Amino acid sequence: MPKKAILCVDDEEIVLTALREQLQDFFGEQYRYELAESAEEAMEVMEELAQEGVEVVMIISDWLMPKIKGDEFLINVHQNFPKIMTVILTGHATFEAIERAKKEANLYDYLYKPWTAQELRAVIQSALNDL
């Protein structure tokens, strides 16, 4: 079982399914692909993975989610896990939210929904190469 994971966070199951399928197509068995439908669930998944000795190397998060926006979630993550690479998926994020995430969450990049497989692969591969 891989010791590194990519965590996808989105409140839409269809988006999570598409992300996992595309990531598996790109990177095969190199990583574990974990899914969470909320920021709260994502934090629980991260704790479980840490207990298993699995390092989360990347989080791909939606911006518009119930209870907490993606930039706020990624800022919280960065404060506790500064080495995790982060990417926001959005159809609604404001320029200010993206800039805030870049400054306070070390946001690597962002993609607009709907993204293309080529865009996703390029961003994720580039981010993972920078680890």
Task: Walk me through what this model shows.
By secondary structure, the protein is of the alpha/beta class. The protein has one domain: 3-Layer(aba) Sandwich (Rossmann fold), CATH 3.40.50. Helices cover 47% and strands 22% of the residues. It has five helices and five strands, in the order βαβαβαβαβα. The protein has helices spanning 13-27, 39-51, 70-80, 95-104, 117-129, and strands at 4-9, 32-36, 55-62, 85-90, 109-112. It has a five-stranded parallel beta sheet with strand order 2-1-3-4-5, sandwiched between helices. The protein is globular and about 40 Å long. The two termini are 20 Å apart. The relative contact order is 0.17.
Give me some keywords for this one.
Rossmann fold; alpha/beta; five-stranded parallel β-sheet; globular; 131 residues
Write the layout of secondary structure elements.
Layout: E1 4-9, H1 13-27, E2 32-36, H2 39-51, E3 55-62, H3 70-80, E4 85-90, H4 95-104, E5 109-112, H5 117-129
Parallel strand pairs: 1-2, 1-3, 3-4, 4-5
Helix pairs in contact: 3-4
In a nutshell, what does this entry contain?
This protein is an alpha/beta fold. The protein is built from five helices and five strands; from the N terminus they run βαβαβαβαβα. The chain has one domain (4-129): Rossmann fold.
CATH superfamily: Response regulator
Separation of the first and last Cα atoms: 20 Å
The helix/strand series, from N terminus to C terminus, equals EHEHEHEHEH
Query: Which percent bin holds the helix content?
Result: 40-55%
* Major beta-sheet overview: 5 strands, parallel
Looking at the structure, the CATH topology is Rossmann fold
Tell me the strand percentage band.
15-25%
**Which value, in Å, is the CA radius of gyration?**
13 Å
Question: So what's the CATH class?
Answer: Alpha Beta
What count of helical segments does DSSP give? 5
Shape: globular
